[in-house]
Design goal:
By secondary structure, the protein is mostly helical. The protein has ten helices and no strands. It is a multi-pass membrane protein.
Length: 261
């Protein structure tokens, strides 16, 4: 899709899509690419799936960076853990994205949606490790469990062309005892790193549209402001964010299950 051939209607849909992505990233740390990809395919009607995946990864990564700085200004980000997790996850992302470009992603729709249902259920079940005392920069599980898991979630994110926030947030909750707000904010470090890695891989193959990315980011900034504002208001009522996050996963999982039938 060429920048100069966009109609006003198409631009509006791109900004709306970006707004939804930015809002979800700021509020929950996840759901960006999972929402962005189907919206670009079925609402904006961009026919090239791999172009959608590559472009979505780039726009989500940039939106995550913007929201990250807003969260950082409010002191919600745990940088040491975020950077360490990012370095490990990106290795998996680079491998996964290479495999993903050679694979029809429709084959993984069913297991992926089932994975989302599992994560939603675990999110609704209050994590007693999270929020007890000060958050830790070191894993509360054995490193032999933590780092292979981080590597694997990076590979899954790269393969599916997603930011992976819906996997990173639970990982930070379970492995590092973060509060939900800290997990959401810190996950943006990882999401931006993985998204940039994935989009770079697709860009090398000519599967990223800078024009579409720009319009998605415009919407992402607007949606991110609303999301961060709402997160701050609910900071002391994390159960509400937890339910919203799990509800988002449930809706998206059911949608993907429906599309896979």
């Amino acid at each position: 899709m060429d920048f100069f051939h966009f109609t006003f209607y198409t631009l509006t849909l791109l900004v709306i899509t970006g707004g939804i992505v930015g809002f979800l990233l700021a509020l929950t740390g996840g759901g960006g690419s999972i929402v962005c990809v189907p919206l670009l395919l079925y609402m904006v009607k961009i026919p090239d799936t791999h172009l959608v995946i590559g472009t979505s990864a780039m726009s989500v990564a940039i939106s995550a960076l913007i929201n990250l700085f807003v969260h950082a200004a409010k002191g919600n980000v745990r940088w040491q853990t975020g950077v360490t997790v990012s370095l490990v996850a990106v290795v998996g992302t680079l491998v996964g994205s290479q495999v993903g470009k050679m694979t029809d992603g429709h084959h993984l729709t069913l297991p992926f949606s089932l994975l989302m249902l599992v994560v939603a259920g675990l999110t609704l079940k209050r994590n007693h490790r999270a929020g007890n005392g000060l958050p830790s920069s070191h894993p509360t599980f054995h490193p032999a469990i933590v780092w292979p898991s981080v590597l694997a979630l990076g590979a899954v994110a790269g393969f599916l062309g997603i930011g992976g926030g819906f996997l990173v947030v639970p990982a930070l909750l379970w492995f590092f005892r973060f509060s939900l707000v800290e997990a959401v904010a810190t996950s943006l470090v990882v999401v931006s790193a993985m998204g940039l890695s994935t989009s770079a891989s697709y860009a090398i193959s000519g599967k990223v549209s800078l024009a579409i990315t720009c319009w998605l980011i415009v919407g992402g900034v607007l949606g991110g402001v609303v999301g961060v504002t709402l997160t701050e208001r609910l900071k002391k009522r994390e159960d509400i964010i937890r339910v919203l996050y799990a509800g988002m996963l449930l809706v998206l999982a059911l949608y993907m299950l429906f599309k896979s039938l």
